[in-house]
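Fill in residues.
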């Protein structure tokens, strides 16, 4: 059973979310005290943190930033629960370090779908659960990189430069035009040496804040790639 910590100063929302997650088979711990979350994460194991955006003393945005700067906790998946729907607010959530955002009022089906998707994406076995499609596309952020693989989870990038694990990047590439999405924000989740070129590093990344429509376009691209590979 996977463990989820949910923090919200509103006790009604706290009970509702606890009920939804418990019914879906998760163990749920709740708190109204955002100031105690870091200490609790240090002492207990949680597979996911869900935090409300607007709380007294410490906002969800500031809580996420604090966790992302913590060496031992920076890896934990975090979802931000917010009543803000505008693109600038969603971008603010991503910039703070959130891996996903859920907009209020809560739709239980959408809510559980996003929780399941995020837990699956960051599970140790997730790399084998997401089929990858080979890609060869040039891309740039502050350094020249090559996109070598794409999956629903994220991209694999090859470069002579190594970005720090947990850092966020956004790359520019014609590849995104081909599949019809805007360049997504990526988080570096792991690095390894490129076996085909020892001078290069392979950086595994996960998508942050993809919309359902963008995710569907990636799935369509992968399906088309696999169909062409079978036909060939």
């Amino acid at each position: 059973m996977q463990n989820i910590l949910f923090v919200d100063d509103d006790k009604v929302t706290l009970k509702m979310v606890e009920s939804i997650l418990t019914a879906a088979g998760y163990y749920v711990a709740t708190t109204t005290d955002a100031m105690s979350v870091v200490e609790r994460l240090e002492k207990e194991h949680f597979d996911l943190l869900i935090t409300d955006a607007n709380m007294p003393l410490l906002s969800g945005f500031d809580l996420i930033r604090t966790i992302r700067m913590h060496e031992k906790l920076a890896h934990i998946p975090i979802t931000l629960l917010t009543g803000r729907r505008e693109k600038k607010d969603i971008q603010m959530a991503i910039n703070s370090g959130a891996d996903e955002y859920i907009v209020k009022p809560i739709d239980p089906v959408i809510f559980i779908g996003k929780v399941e998707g995020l837990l699956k994406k960051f599970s140790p076995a997730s790399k084998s659960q997401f089929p990858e499609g080979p890609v060869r596309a040039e891309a740039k952020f502050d350094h020249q990189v090559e996109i070598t693989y794409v999956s629903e989870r994220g991209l694999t990038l090859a470069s002579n430069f190594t970005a720090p694990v947990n850092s966020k990047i956004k790359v520019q590439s014609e590849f995104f035009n081909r599949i019809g999405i805007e360049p997504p924000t990526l988080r570096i989740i792991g690095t390894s040496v490129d076996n085909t070129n020892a001078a290069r590093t392979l950086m595994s990344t996960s998508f942050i804040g993809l919309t359902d429509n963008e995710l569907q376009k990636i799935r369509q691209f992968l399906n088309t790639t696999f169909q062409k590979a079978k036909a060939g």
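Residues 212-231 form the longest helix (20 residues).
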